[in-house]
Amino acid sequence: MGAIQAIRGTRDILPPETNYWQWVEAIAKGILDRALYQEIRTPIFEQTSLFERGIGEATDVVGKEMYSFTDRGDRPITLRPEGTAGVVRAYIEQNLQATGGVQRLWYTGPMFRYERPQAGRQRQFHQLGVEVLGSADPRADVEVIALGTDILKALGLSNLSLALNSVGNGGDRQRYREALISYLTPFKDELDPDSQDRLERNPLRILDSKAKRTQEIVQDAPSILDHLGPDSQRHFDQVQQLLTDLGIAYQLTPTLVRGLDYYTHTAFEIQSSDLGAQATVCGGGRYDGLVAELGGPITPAVGWAMGLERLIILLQQMATPPVPGPDFYIISKGEKAEPQALILAQQLRQQGFTVALDLSASAFGKQFKRADKSGAIACLVLGEGEMATGTVQLKWLASKAQETLQLEDLMGDITELKQRLAGHREK
């Protein structure tokens, strides 16, 4: 029988690539912790109706891309294609609004969409996202944009740009919808097939078409920014002013509508020119009607999601995550020395040191070469001679200085050992 392979559209994430993932997650968590965002973890699968109602049945995600099935209880189930709907479901079901105030939440994990696999876009992909529930204040819009920008900059990314739009409220969009249909109808036969299908059902999605001729047609389409009511215009003006106050440059992009139906008012994407055609690394906006649509109280909300696969590709081109070597690399050879090396490794780890234990039982020379490559600060050597005298050889790998210590003395004063280690790390 042939070997079993990963399913198309999925991939293994192996070392050392996992260093990048851990780096991104650590940077993001640090920044979000300082802004008092709290992590939420929701199920990977939900009732299909959650996404049909939340995302919109006329969207490509619901209509073409969801992984849905019927479980053994004859219930329609879907692997989550995005994170916001599940967070909102949890917000309602767990009555988070009862705790009072604004809920600042973040999440990360796998999502699933049946798309054509390509670099940075898999059928199982990963997102990092934030959601702010309970505030209609334009400052919430700008806060989440600023945090997304801070995360990307903290990772060392440059060549970033912010595309910004407002899709208004329901009344604004209805007026714009009518104007857009009126403009596009004479071009119906020239539109791509998907856009022809969307003309009556969801014409705003035509603005997001990748078909060349459709893109040419929509260049002269009416702008939604000309159809905003006074309240929507006021909100959008404040968002722009606050971005300017924070020194965050942006480009007004009237064709930016995002791919999900729940957006209201602010819509945005943070893009990198280093990614080519698939330039967006972070996208989101406001969704003031989603909580009520899913059965909860009227609750304004705003958030974003980052596609981690695209972000990792970009980081691999531009940066290297800091991966410190171990504090100690333990070398051993001999029937008595090798078990003692394991004991010593565990003792040091329990005291907070990072320790690599060579398990090869190969010649000392080969083990020393691996110790040098490991980036360790010091090497601890146990052989039959050391076992006979109750000692250990301590070799500082940078300076090549070496000393003989009693085993009990090595573990006797942990504070001193940490100080000595820190001194050699700084050299």
Outline of the structure:
This protein has 427 residues and is of the alpha+beta class. Helices cover 39% and strands 21% of the residues.
Q: In words, what does this structure look like?
A:
This protein is α+β, with helices and mostly antiparallel strands. The protein has two domains: 17-169 and 229-318, BirA Bifunctional Protein, domain 2, CATH 3.30.930.10; 328-421, 3-Layer(aba) Sandwich (Rossmann fold), CATH 3.40.50.800. It has 16 helices and 16 strands. The strands form three sheets. An eight-stranded mixed β-sheet has the order 1-5-6-11-10-9-7-8. A five-stranded mixed β-sheet has the order 13-12-14-15-16, sandwiched between helices. The model has no long low-confidence stretch (mean pLDDT 93).
Descriptive terms for the model:
single chain; 427 residues; alpha+beta; BirA Bifunctional Protein, domain 2; Rossmann fold; 2 domains; 8-stranded mixed beta sheet; 5-stranded mixed beta sheet; 16 helices; 16 strands
